[in-house]
Amino acid sequence: MIQTSKITQHFTTGELAGQSILESRKTIGDLEGVFRDRAAWERLDPSTLVYRVQAHQPVAEGVEGGLFWGATILEPGSVGDEFFQTRGHLHSRANRAEFYVTVAGLGALILMSPDRVTSVEWMTAGSIHYIPGFTAHRVANIGTEPLRMLACWPSDAGHDYETISRFGFSGRVRRIDGQASLILE
Ligand code: F6R
Ligand code: MN
Q1: How many CB atoms neighbour CB 80 within 10 A?
Q2: What pLDDT does residue 1 have?
Q3: What is the CA(2)–ligand 2 centre distance, in A?
Q4: Residues with CB under 5 A from ligand 2 (ion)
Q5: How high is the mean pLDDT in each 10-residue block of the chain (185 residues)?
Q6: Relative to the CA of 97, which of 40, 66, 82, 119 has its CA 20 to 30 Å away?
Q7: Do residues 74 and 145 touch, judged by C-beta distance below 8 A?
Q8: Separation between Cα atoms, residue 69 and residue 9, nearest integer Å
Q9: Considering only CA atoms, which residue is closest to atom 14 of ligand 1?
């Protein structure tokens, strides 16, 4: 039998197309507590789009042994001296790893180890990033164009947002003297 894939990946825009793609969006108003400068966050229009996530989930969430494929498009922008960024999370099954691939734009992948050591990998078109298990991850757009990236993760990984919203990362990427820098807290 010869079949054509029902899901396609656009390699310029990073967008997924096809039936049953799940889509979610996060606005400034959805991201309370994510940015250190609360006053700057409050000054922004809460309906401002920060990022969109598309997911291709060929098996149900929680199934062991499957994989998910996702696209994230993170707009350029800033909140105080921080860049627009994702909420960040651990995986609920914390040992589950993940790949990120940058399609376009300039980003910072912020990683935090279980002993709360935070590090950064710069993201540029074509860069591949392996996120080991037990590692909290968040992405910031440090450029002036949308940051377009792809992700592949196990279908039983799940998402633990609670730990990061309670304890945060131990470092943040901030614009210091015009340059994106990792500032440890
Ligand atoms: C999946 C994954 C990405 C993120 C996406 C948005 O495990 O890491 O698909 O979910 O980039 O970031 P969060 O989920 O932190 O809002
Ligand atoms: Mn993840």
Answers
A1: 15
A2: 87
A3: 33
A4: 98
A5: 92 96 98 98 98 98 98 98 98 99 98 98 99 99 99 99 98 98 97
A6: 82
A7: no
A8: 10
A9: 88
Please give the pLDDT value at position 164.
Answer: 98
Beta carbons within 8 Å of 86's beta carbon, 6+ residues apart: 26, 51, 72, 74, 138, 139, 140
Q: What pLDDT sits at residue 5?
A: 87
- Decide: 67 in ligand 1 pocket, CB within 6 A: no
Distance 40 CA to ligand 1 centre (A): 24
Is 69 close to ligand 1, i.e. is its CB under 6 Å away? no
Element (DSSP H or E) covering residue 179: strand 179-184
The Å distance, Cα 54 to ligand 2 centre, comes to 13
**Nearest alpha-carbon partner for 159 in 112, 89, 95, 97:** 89
CA dihedral 97, 100, 106, 109 (to 10 degrees): 0
For 152, the token pair is: 């592949």
